[in-house]
Batch of 3 targets.
Target 1
Amino acid sequence: MQLMTKKRINTLFRFSLIGLLLVFLSVFTIDIAFASPQQQEGPVYIVQQGDTLSSIALRFGISAEELQNANNIADPNALDIGQHLVIPGLEGITGLLTSEVLPYGTSLTGLTRQYQLNRSNLITLNRITSPSETIAGIKFIIAINENEDPLSPVMMITAGETSLEASIRAVTSPWSLVADNQLAATWDMLPGETLYGRTEDDVTIANLPDLNEIDIDPLPIIQGETVLIGLTSNSEVEFIGSFNGEPLHFFSDDGEHYYGFLGIHALADPGPFPLKITATYPDGTEQSFEQLTLLSPGDYGNEWVFVPDDYLDEAAITEEDNYLQPILRQVTPDRDWEGRFQYPIDEPCINSLFGQRRNYNDGELFFYHTGLDFAVCAPNLNVYAPAAGRVVLAEELTIKGNAILIDHGWGIFSAYAHLSEITVQVGDLVETGDLLGLIGNTGRSAGPHLHFEIIISGNPVNPQTWLDQEFP
């Protein structure tokens, strides 16, 4: 009996040693697993449309190999949209990293307050050297807290306003304003700056009193496209503006919503340019806000065109353009059109797109296509008004041949070229669908077709946008 007990004890002892060894090995294995690259701690980036491993790595200033190793990625070409990637080398930064197109009116200080971020972390994430690099339209990397909603602008401090008055107007306490806006104390609130908090009310933005909303479409701005800038104000204010020196006019149907259109030249240099908005108030005072805003390439293609050499004379081209520009620069304060523009022919067969970089006659002239070309596909040659407006030109030109211009109001014009016949005259008011003329082959034309343009600020813009989208 004693012998059996000793054997049993020895057996139990051996099993205990084995058990302890297994426990030790399992703990060691867990430690190894947690130390693996896939489990490294750090901020997480969500893969978005168009991202590649290399582009993500470049954005954060690391190598593609570092990013691949940190996330145990076997195939660097097999990223999925929505996939979470740990970004190594960003010590002290936590949260979910997301790309946001900066809206007009955004500042570096505003971003730190809105998302409750550390300023130096925001600078590190976006590798910027100056607050002026918060350019409207660029993509900014922001670390957000998934468990908290970002703050909203609640007020703009006015001259002579005390912190107590400001907090009453913002329906909060002075100490909450100090904490939410990363201020040193109540005395740190400066006139003209925007403070953030938790609210759903409309507030002033971009340091322009009574301005509740600024919407720029598209943002970033694109070569050859129409830019619509919408403003919402809680009082009747007169707005004007400019983009890179190009004047911008605003119009309103109701005294609350204001709209301004920019036509961006299809050959405009990409880059950041100043967009300025000035408000004139009923008492005569003016206030302006200006911010660099990004202009991006339109990514248009190329095409080769052959026409009679007589139509490639640059002096004749310049003379015609100088004749038309004063007409196209007029801005009519009344809007005639309503809704989306209609196609100007019965069967829209497009044989040349807007913006194409054109090579005429093997290099005799380089330019771009200023409109849409419609081939003859319908059983007729009819050309119709796409929207209501007033005829401001109807005559034969050298380059455009028999041509028509219609002023639709608010600085928007449509043009029709190479017609065989014109059935309207200057001063006529036309409605959508009214007959303007017949397709032809006059002027600089390589065959019968309708050349159709939309022109803003003297610049032809992509007509397809007006055929697809309703403005405003």
Target 2
Amino acid sequence: MNRDFLPPKNDVVFRLLFGDKRNGDLLRDFLQSVLTLPADDFAEITIVDPHLLRKHPDKKLGILDLKAKTKSGKIIHIEIQLADFPQMRERIVFYDAGLITDQIDEGEEYGVIKRVITILIVDYVLISESPHYHNRFTLYDSASAVEFTDLIEIHTLELPKLPETADNYLWHWLRFLRAESKEDLDMVAQASPKLGKVVVKLLKLSKEERARMLYEAQVKQERDDRARMRGAREEGLAEGKAEGKTEGKSEGKSEKAIEIARKLLDMKLPIEQIVKATGLSCEAIENLCAENRNRRRPTRYES
């Protein structure tokens, strides 16, 4: 590692910093720099599922996005993506729809549904149609300039679009996440007491053995996953050549992609990585996951 501190834009490091209830004031300050909500709503920010690791038999890292609730019950979902992810817009809408439907049980009224707010931080250009590094999306009619509802609200924060000079307070937070040197951190720390505190927390966290082990474990897992995907691709190409697949045999190509996807699912690879390896859609991979679950589920006649 070339730097003296863990990269704050890494999702494990971000989760360790902002998923710690002792750092609730720092999470609140970051959220206030992104969202326009009543000040009272930030008075109580509760972390949902504050555990970094999930209890899987294979001990792999679990999902590392961060979920929080405001005082009024709004659900805030924060996610970081460092690598370009195909169909990210569709994935976020699908995920948010699940956070909506999970709130209501059979027989309940729709009025119980609380707003779902996603903050998506990416280290690549996601919204090429806009020059802004911060965009807010809701269900909106551009012709009449009327917002249908704000029950789903999506904020995108694109680090590569960040200008060289500060234009608002959010800029300093994103500059912190993008920090590459101690000089970057020193500059950010001067912006406010909260940013000074998060820099101190990051430097302290970077010296903790557990934090470094979790970070290095994730880096190793990602490296291993890339190696598995390369192997799966090479295997698929080799088998495809052996079978003499030619242009026009799309059905055979699709079957081969599904076969590779099944193997990668058995390896417990994340869905987004399987999408990249096979070219299949997120929906197709989700359907394969469901098929796997159904095959493993015992019938009522089994003991």
Target 3
Amino acid sequence: MQSLLPSIYPLLKQTFGLSFGQIGIITLVNQIIASVLQPVIGVYTDRRPLPYSLAAGMAFTLAGMVLLAFGPTYGAVIAASACIGLGSAVFHPESSRVARLASGGRHGFAQAFFQVGGNVGSAVGPLCAAFFVLPHGRSSIAWFSLMAIVGMLFLWNVGNWYRQTSAFTGTGGTVVTHRTGLSRTQTRIALALLLGLLFSKYVYLASFGSYYTFYLIHRFNLTVRSAQVHLFFFLGAVAAGTIFGGPIGDRFGRRRVILGSILGVLPFSLALPYANLFWTRLLTIVIGLILASAFSAIIVFAQELVPGRVGAIAGLYFGFAFGIAGVGAAVLGELADRTNITVVYHVCSFLPAIGVLGFWLPKVERSG
């Protein structure tokens, strides 16, 4: 449902006569609200878990979908974007904790498996836009609100299960935490390095989420539907890369996954702006597969650096990822307006070079 918002940007641009900068503002509002609130909610729920916040988050998304379908003005679209961002902010901190509780100790796998649901949904969104929303108009988005209602029922049951866990009953005994042996300063530096790596990853991903369809239409004269299908290929690769990244991090170490994922994309990102349509399609699939494997490893790495603060860390890193993606989308939209859309991909091709920060991450995680 969240992915329908960027997927219908071409439709919104035509309907309301928007500039690329205004498109970027829609993304900015959505991501900044999610960014600011997620750490706050995460810190609060570390102290006082909220099992039914999962269903509440879906309710905010439901409101956003209805407003997106019927909002008559650009301002209404902004409000819909804000509601969808609020839904994400409420949902993610506790959902990350639930995934960890259900992991059986395989924290990287559980985080990746949880996130791949969202990534698969993000991949399907452009197809829904291309083959359902575009032919039937913006009001057809309201049908996807039914998914939110079904989701709320499922998440209410998840909340019931959550209430029976040791997080509430106190029957789990003493929670064993793995101390890293790092000083407070070293821990803060490591957390900052991880945020820098997220900056690289999510600004680059923002260029695809908000502007890849426009790039394909401008450079290769594709139709909107064809461009949406190409976006699906990229987002599908992101989903696949996410599910591989968690288990590989559990087995071989999260530091290696993070370093190889972000810095490993650089040769492909540098080649992308010069590729023809065939190689563009292939390169974006490779980029999606490699780049996506980092996020679950980053989250679990950070949670291991600060034991016992699962919600706060999840909120901080999900929030930062959403926020920097929103700011990046707005800046890239302004860049596209002042130059052209192809310049965006020339500039962004250098972002994976920030992956060199991974060399300074401490070797503290345990494999296996």
